[in-house]
Specification:
- By secondary structure, the chain is of the alpha/beta class.
- It has a single domain, classed as Rossmann fold (3-Layer(aba) Sandwich), CATH 3.40.50.150.
- The chain contains 9 helices and 7 strands, in the order ααββββαβαααβαααβ.
- The termini are far apart.
């Protein structure tokens, strides 16, 4: 069997395994997944775009087909994700191309100017629903990770977040000023909890433990008090 074929098979097994989904990831996606499933009850043939999808994105948790766009392609693309390489600020789609546009932890990596462009682009290509979540500002837990944790994909992401100027939390309102829409916001996982769940990922033993046994505590984790650092934005276009 060719090496490329074997590698592709191994990646498929890993990316479709429960071990691929860590607790922070599940909690982060949960409010958007729930909202998306509610919308899907009325329209089972939803056309969905995920900005900043990576190779899997929301297809980890949502069983429908999704178009994903990101600046870099990855080694594995989920079979239900139609991946496209491109920019969040110049989406290669026509107006009202998708029923729902979502983005999870992408906007904060951009400059303020591009953050507003991204919101406008999402609004342009969405027929009705837009859902964002991202961290607001740069907190003490972020700083601790950068100063004391070993270099990893997570610390690189935080560095990009900081270099991008971080998000302020008013990006939707500023970008869509003068347009008709309804906005609902919601707070996300408390930063202290997010920090400790991320800390479990730094050691192989605790990483496996958190991705298996500790998942029985997910219902409790979802009910814990929320913080003001992560915010969810649910936009509905009007008219």
């Amino acid at each position: 069997m060719p090496k490329t074929s074997l590698k592709a098979r191994m990646l498929k097994i890993i990316y479709n395994s429960p071990l691929e989904k860590n607790l922070n990831l599940i909690l982060r996606y949960d409010p958007i997944v729930k909202n998306l499933k509610n919308i899907a009850k009325k329209n089972k043939n939803l056309k969905i775009l995920e900005i900043g999808s990576g190779s899997i994105g929301i297809t980890r948790f949502y069983k429908g087909h999704v178009v994903g766009i990101d600046v870099e392609s990855e080694k594995y693309n989920h079979p239900r994700l139609k991946f496209m390489k491109g920019s969040a600020t110049t989406l290669p789609f026509k107006k009202n191309s998708f029923d729902v546009v979502i983005s999870i932890d992408t906007l904060e990596h951009l400059t303020r100017k591009d953050q507003l462009k991204m919101v406008l682009e999402a609004h342009r290509v969405a027929k009705r629903h837009i859902m964002f979540t991202y961290p607001i500002g740069f907190n003490k837990y972020h700083e601790k990770m950068l100063k004391t944790w070993k270099k990893s994909h997570l610390t690189k992401s935080l560095e990009e977040h900081l270099e991008g100027g971080t998000a302020k939390g008013d990006e939707v309102q500023q970008a869509l000023k003068g347009r008709k829409y309804k906005l609902t916001t919601k707070d996300g996982t408390h930063p202290r909890l997010a920090y400790h769940l991320s800390y479990l990922e730094q050691n192989m033993v605790t990483k496996i433990l958190s991705r298996t046994v500790l998942k029985i505590f997910l219902p409790l984790l979802k009910r814990l008090p929320k913080g003001k650092i992560r915010r969810y934005f649910f936009v509905t276009k009007v008219g």
